[in-house]
Amino acid sequence: xxxxxxxxxxxxxxxxxxxxxxxxxxxxxxxxxxxxxxxxxxxxxxxxxxxxxxxxxxxxxxxxxxxxxxxxxxxxxxxxxxxxxxxxxxxxxxxxxxxxxxxxxxxxxxxxxxxxxxxxxxxxxxxxxxxxxxxxxxxxxxxxxxxxxxxxxxxxxxxxxxxxxxxxxxxxxxxxxxxxxxxxxxxxxxxxxxxxxxxxxxxxxxxxxx
Length: 210
Hints:
Blueprint: H1 9-13, H2 20-49, E1 57-59, E2 73-78, E3 89-94, E4 98-105, H3 112-121, H4 124-127, E5 134-136, E6 145-146, H5 149-161, E7 167-174, H6 183-205
Antiparallel strand pairs: 1-2, 2-3, 3-4, 4-7, 5-6, 5-7
Helix pairs in contact: 2-6, 3-5
């Protein structure tokens, strides 16, 4: 087993720190090194599942912020060396209350309409996910929904047709979850979540032109 780092309550408490500079200093010092380690390990394991596809690790820097401190922070696994938002990508991140483990389609990725249509036409892979998987249609908000067929179709159509539409699917862990006290169990949970999302990731890329 890898020498896995794990998040602690101290990491979640960073989001109670007032002020942009003060909060960002703690994010850089305590959270980002963990993102680099976990992200690199996840990237290597997922690359093997995807036929040695290279999955760069990108850590959110929040450089455009000038006043308000971030309410969450994350690393993205996927895309290319220049960025990740143009592509389906895996995300791992923290809010004050929970950790999120997403396959994300945000900020108008390439071939967005084609990917959305492929999921509208064939929702089977999404609907076959375990019952604790959830979906989000706005990465800037904390609220999520269970995977419900009618709501799923309606929101996939909105994602396809609205410039503001987004789609994220995955799992969340409460900051109080005891799994954070067991680094191996934590890493296994994260990796198994992403393994469950790989078929959706592959389906998305089938919508790209050859």
